[in-house]
Amino acid sequence: MTNTVWASTVLWAQQSGAAASADAKPAEATGTAQGVPAGKDQGAAGGLFGGGWSTIIMLVLMVAVFYFLLIRPQQKKAKEHQKMIDAIGKGTEIVTNGGLIGRVTAITGKTLTMEISEKVRVRVLRSQVAGIYDSGETTEKK
Questions:
Q1: What is the pLDDT of residues 94-136, one digit of tens each?
Q2: Topology adopted by domain 88-132
Q3: CB-based contacts of 104: which residues, under 8 Å, 6+ apart?
Q4: What is the pTM of this model?
Q5: CA 10 to CA 50: how far, in whole Å?
Q6: Cα(48)–Cα(56) distance, rounded to whole angstroms?
Q7: Phi, psi angles (nearest 5°) of residue 56
């Protein structure tokens, strides 16, 4: 403990330009605490950031960063997803979040009925539709 206090006193003495001699007093005797000069108390008014305004500015900047990097893009994506769900009609091929691919045969309220194979129909919540399926396959056969 004494070595740590002594090292911080020497460091402070070097930074302030005072000569650090071998017979200098320990930190407690000179009025310093962990390398902070005696007249420079970091009380409640000063704080780590130097005052109340800079703390408020930092908080406002953090909220702005969170809004523009997290919240706004998520809202934009949710709007696009809702627009895509509203555009689904009979005959549209869709993909669900579970990976099922099928053609919409009926739309009722919050659910869709989709045909995943001939005479195999499944009811799916509209919110579970991941997107409109584009197979990219050609329908021509050789």
A1: 999 999 999 999 999 899 999 999 999 999 999 999 999 987 7
A2: SH3 type barrels. (2.30.30)
A3: 88, 89, 90, 91, 92, 93, 94, 112, 113, 114
A4: 0.53
A5: 25
A6: 13
A7: -65, -40
